[in-house]
């Protein structure tokens, strides 16, 4: 008991951010009626400031795990706690709010809109915003972040006029524009050459160290994984560190 309390206290001091406890996730295929177990009582704790790589073969459940972390997908059983609040019990409004406020997502395909400029793409989440002061602040942040990732000379260019690496960095800026606590990236270097992948890996390190953003990065790249502080592997639905 004393040991348990000490552990709990250490977690508070270290600042636990996300705790996945015995997460089980399966998919039912309608044609064959077979259940495909993807996450099997998987447990994982992420502390504030962590920088984690998730590795694992194709189909092992990496994207599924990120989706559960961000509440885009709900587990069949187990609990997800963020800042010690159980998000698995939120209703859909609360979940949407949670994601908008706390999570930044970088997808493998950058999903930038071709008809918008770089700056407009980054500010897209603020398009419906009515408050002009809030909009102005967001624009200031966007310009600062675009400068941080080395894209300040291209803010009026469209994605079609940018390289793959530049688009990927732009997607990172868009994921950071609302100042999320946790950045989740799904194979962000998947389509990049070695030099651009290396540049993006270094950028992740700086975002973590200088902006204090906690991050989980799914990757097939050993190079990118080596830039992270922790390396986790998914095997048979469970995490191995
Ligand atoms: N919506 C779904 N319905 C049914 N099965 C699914 C669904 N999404 C994923 N799966 C299955 O769950 C397993 C894990 O998928 P997931 O996308 O998490 O793998 P992954 O590790 O991200 O793979 P990759 O490296 O190829 O991206 C796969 O076998 C996949 O076919
Ligand atoms: Mg995937």
Characterize the structure shown.
The protein has 241 residues and is an alpha/beta fold. It has a single domain (49-73, 91-240), classed as Rossmann fold, CATH 3.40.50. The protein has helices at residues 2-14, 62-69, 92-102, 118-122, 132-148, 164-176, 194-211, 222-226; strands spanning 16-28, 35-47, 51-55, 77-82, 85-86, 103-106, 182-186, 214-218, 230-235, 238-240. Strand 1 and strand 2 form a beta hairpin. Helix 6 (164-176) runs parallel beside helix 7 (194-211). The model has no long low-confidence stretch (mean pLDDT 89). The site of adenosine-5'-triphosphate has 11 residues, from strand 2 and helix 2. It holds the Pfam family ABC_tran. GO terms for molecular function: ATP binding; ATP hydrolysis activity; transmembrane transporter activity. InterPro entries: AAA+_ATPase (IPR003593), ABC_transporter-like_ATP-bd (IPR003439), ABC_transporter-like_CS (IPR017871), MacB-like_ATP-bd (IPR017911), P-loop_NTPase (IPR027417). Keywords: ATP-binding, Nucleotide-binding, Translocase, Transport. This is ABC transporter ATP-binding protein.
């Amino acid at each position: 008991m004393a040991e348990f309390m000490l552990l709990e206290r250490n977690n508070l001091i270290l600042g636990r951010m996300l705790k996945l406890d015995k997460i089980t996730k399966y998919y039912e295929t309608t044609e064959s009626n077979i259940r495909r177990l993807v996450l099997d009582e998987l447990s994982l704790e992420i502390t504030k400031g962590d920088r984690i790589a998730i590795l694992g073969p194709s189909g092992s459940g990496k994207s599924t795990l990120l989706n559960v972390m961000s509440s885009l997908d709900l587990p069949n059983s187990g609990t997800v706690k963020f800042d010690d609040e159980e998000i698995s019990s939120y209703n859909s409004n609360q979940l949407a709010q949670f994601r908008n406020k706390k999570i930044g997502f970088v997808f493998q395909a950058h999903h930038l809109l071709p008809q918008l400029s770089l700056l407009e793409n980054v500010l897209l989440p603020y398009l419906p915003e009515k408050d002009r002061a809030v909009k102005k602040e967001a624009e200031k942040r966007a310009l600062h972040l675009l400068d941080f990732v080395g894209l300040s000379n291209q803010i009026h260019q469209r994605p079609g006029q940018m390289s793959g690496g530049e688009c990927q960095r732009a997607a990172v800026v868009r994921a950071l524009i609302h100042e999320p606590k946790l950045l989740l990236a799904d194979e962000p270097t998947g389509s990049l050459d070695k030099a651009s992948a290396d540049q993006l890996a270094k950028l992740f390190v700086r975002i973590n160290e200088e902006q204090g953003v906690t991050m989980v990065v799914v990757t097939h790249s050993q190079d990118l994984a080596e830039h992270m502080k922790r390396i986790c592997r998914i095997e048979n639905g469970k995490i191995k560190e």
